[in-house]
What does this fold into?
Amino acid sequence: MKVVVLGGTGSVGQLIANKLAAQGVKVLVLTRQAREPGNNIIFDLDKKSGI
It folds into this structure.
């Protein structure tokens, strides 16, 4: 399963994204800021790719 998290770099969004990733869910975080991918978490600046 893949879940898109809007606002996934904020305090609540980060918590949600990390909990989902820890459960093995692939998480796509849409963000305006470049970030390094983590375990099961992809940060996407181009809102069309990866969805």
